[in-house]
Amino acid sequence: MGSQTAKIYRDLARAVKKHIVNGKEHTNPHFLDFVSSEFHKNPNLLDTAALEQKLKLARDYTLMLNSVHHHKELLFSYNIAVDRSDEVRRTLGKSAASVGLRLPEVYQP
């Protein structure tokens, strides 16, 4: 069980470093400190059910971090963004109304 626990810890630490700590938006090492402290808190846990539950949680969290990051990369690679046509239509309508004009029929709902 020791080598399996070490592998799960390495994978989770790697995912946290890659996607949370060293990400462009976050430079906060507290997440990695929390993960490390949780793994070092009970090194000789005798309750196998609790140990299995904690390891499953760590595996699931690692999978979620990697999957969310991969999904985000896919969205950016396919240039999928929020459809802003309604927002553009509303902005154009307000601009046209402020100078006393109407929108062309192309922009009418």
Please give the structural blueprint.
Blueprint: H1 2-21, H2 30-41, H3 48-77, H4 85-98
Helix pairs in contact: 1-2, 1-3
Organism: Arachis hypogaea
Protein name: Complex 1 LYR protein
How would you describe this structure to a colleague?
With 109 residues, this protein is an all-alpha fold. The chain has two domains: 1-77, no CATH class; 81-108, no CATH class. It has helices at 2-21, 30-41, 48-77, 85-98. Helix 1 (2-21) runs antiparallel to helix 2 (30-41) and helix 1 runs parallel beside helix 3 (48-77). The chain is rod-shaped, with a radius of gyration of 24 Å. It starts with a helix and ends in an 11-residue tail after the last helix. The model has no long low-confidence stretch (mean pLDDT 79).
The number of helical elements comes to 4
Number of spatially distinct domains: 2
**Helix and strand pattern:** HHHH
Content-based structural category: mainly alpha
List keywords for this structure.
2 domains; rod-shaped; mainly alpha; 109 residues; Complex 1 LYR protein; 4 helices; 0% strand
Structure in a nutshell:
This is Complex 1 LYR protein. With 109 residues, this protein is mainly alpha-helical.
